[in-house]
Task: inverse folding
């Protein structure tokens, strides 16, 4: 038991002295790293601007309210585009992610040595790059517009959907698969009757969940020129029309809440 | 197999959505939506075809990516991103802990609970990019705006999950500590903290990952970090540099994920 003897009486302590010292050293090192990083940031900061921030913030707020409601009618079309980017992007991603997921799952992959690592690499590469960066890339390749947005959402979502789906496939109950195999089913039939029914609810849930995230992400893709309501946001910020920005925020906020509600309802119905 | 013997009826697996009205309604709805959406899609195909050559250039740029000619900028951008990630994660955690405590119904009184839940809801619904735009407008371009943005996002993420974890703690241990006459702070220190610490460490590391990934994005709107460097590279059509930056991001993200996986496994 960790105790300390002081003046003849022994006192209980939570940790041994060595351990306490190590923890203390850890905290010291962590604090040093933090202070160093803070110094770097503070060196690159114009503090005049920062001291000015409350004034600027109040000024910004003053310009943002009231929102410019007359701007609303010109937002319907970009909003429709945003929904299309998210929905079509998700749909394309689903089509591509399903085969990737079956190739990545240990129990369905055609070859553990070759195909599985390849599928896993596709998943990792797709997941580590944000949709906005994919959009940046695609805009400079195929030009600004909705198509770049759809493809960006698609590229980002493949990894997400495929990862969750292949984990679901790996966690299925073996018994139905064995039963279908014992009945003399071929490989494709085993997948269709033994595996697919087991992962369909998870798959539907994952797809709707990703669609919900994609609605959120597609609202800002326009910032780099990939279509949707983000284009309006970018142009409003550029001309400092902050009351229009508020209007756009309200529309985005409402859309996100709605999509979250829809996705929660659907997932609730499935699971 | 699919013809049932003696009846001549074909067997088919039960549909995923049992209600036929809903099932066929959804199919028709999806078809109508698809027609509308594809009909309103404006794609400049000549521009796309023109761009494919450029796309090929970009693919080629990965072999070999150019780490050298913009080396200083890349290193500086990555360092700035890492610095932003470290500070924002630390600050985010420091602020999340009190808010997380306040948002746990078993520790906080109702008014505090509602206030903290409100803060969490606001921090979670506002997107990083949008917050970054506002912070850039307020404190100017540079890593400080990025740091503030990431801290803000960390608060929403961490305090929500921490609060949920605290609500899931074993009430027996809390009661035992309370029964010894412990004060509220001692209750936290000896009852709550040991139970939630492993998960808090795991979540913090996970958030560190996310913050680095996000730091690559918010640079696009002027909040510093590697995102700004990447944006410049694309603007100048320097695909080989952009390829190098993307590879660097993927490698760091993978390394961070791997390391945090190891640490999380050891803690839990």
Result:
């Amino acid at each position: 038991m960790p105790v300390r003897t002081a003046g003849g009486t022994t006192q209980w302590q939570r940790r041994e002295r060595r351990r306490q010292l190590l923890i203390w050293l850890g905290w010291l090192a962590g604090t040093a790293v933090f202070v160093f990083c803070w110094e770097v940031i503070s060196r690159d900061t114009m503090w005049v601007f920062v001291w000015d921030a409350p004034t600027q913030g109040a000024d910004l707020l003053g310009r943002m309210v009231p929102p410019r409601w007359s701007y609303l009618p010109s937002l319907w079309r970009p909003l429709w585009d945003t929904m299309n980017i998210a929905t079509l992007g998700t749909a394309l991603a689903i089509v591509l992610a399903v085969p990737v997921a079956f190739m990545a799952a240990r129990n369905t992959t055609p070859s553990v040595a070759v195909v599985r690592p390849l599928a896993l690499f596709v998943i990792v590469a797709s997941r580590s790059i944000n949709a906005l960066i994919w959009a940046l890339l695609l805009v400079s390749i195929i030009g600004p517009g909705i198509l770049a947005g759809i493809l960006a959402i698609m590229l980002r979502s493949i990894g997400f959907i495929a990862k969750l789906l292949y984990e679901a496939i790996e966690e299925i109950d073996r018994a139905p698969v064995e039963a279908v195999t014992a009945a003399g089913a071929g490989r494709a039939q085993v997948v269709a009757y033994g595996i697919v029914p087991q992962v369909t609810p998870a798959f539907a849930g994952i797809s709707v969940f990703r669609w919900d995230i994609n609605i959120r992400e597609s609202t800002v893709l326009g910032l780099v020129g990939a279509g949707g309501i983000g284009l309006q946001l970018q142009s409003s910020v550029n001309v400092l029309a902050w009351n229009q920005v508020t209007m756009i925020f309200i529309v985005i906020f409402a859309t996100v809440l709605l999509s979250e509600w829809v996705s929660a309802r659907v997932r609730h119905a499935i699971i | 197999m699919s013809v049932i013997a003696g009846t001549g009826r074909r067997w088919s697996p039960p549909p995923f959505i049992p209600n036929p009205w809903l099932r066929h309604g959804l199919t028709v709805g999806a078809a109508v939506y698809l027609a509308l959406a594809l009909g309103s899609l404006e794609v400049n195909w000549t521009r796309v075809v023109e761009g494919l050559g450029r796309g090929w250039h970009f693919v080629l740029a990965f072999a070999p990516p150019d780490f050298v000619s913009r080396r200083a900028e890349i290193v500086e951008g990555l360092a700035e991103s890492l610095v932003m990630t470290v500070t924002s994660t630390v600050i985010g955690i420091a602020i999340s802990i009190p808010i997380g405590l306040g948002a746990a119904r078993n520790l906080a009184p109702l008014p505090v609970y509602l206030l903290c839940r409100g803060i969490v809801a606001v921090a979670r619904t506002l997107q990083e990019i949008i917050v970054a735009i506002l912070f850039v407008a307020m404190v100017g371009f540079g890593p400080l705006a990025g740091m503030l943005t990431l801290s803000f996002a960390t608060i929403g993420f961490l305090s929500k999950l921490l609060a949920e974890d605290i609500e899931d703690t074993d009430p027996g241990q809390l009661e035992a500590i309370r029964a010894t006459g412990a004060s509220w702070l001692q209750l936290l220190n000896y009852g709550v903290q040991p139970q939630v610490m492993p998960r808090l460490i795991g979540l913090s590391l996970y958030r560190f990952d996310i913050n680095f990934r996000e730091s690559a994005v918010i640079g696009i709107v002027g909040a510093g970090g590697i995102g700004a460097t990447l944006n410049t590279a694309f603007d100048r059509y320097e695909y080989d540099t952009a390829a190098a930056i993307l590879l660097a991001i993927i490698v760091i993200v993978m390394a961070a994920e791997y390391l945090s996986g190891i640490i999380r496994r050891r803690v839990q």
User: Anything to note?
Assistant: The mean pLDDT of chain A is 87. The CA atoms of residues 32 and 38 of chain A lie 10 Å apart. The beta strands of chain A are 3-6, 9-12.
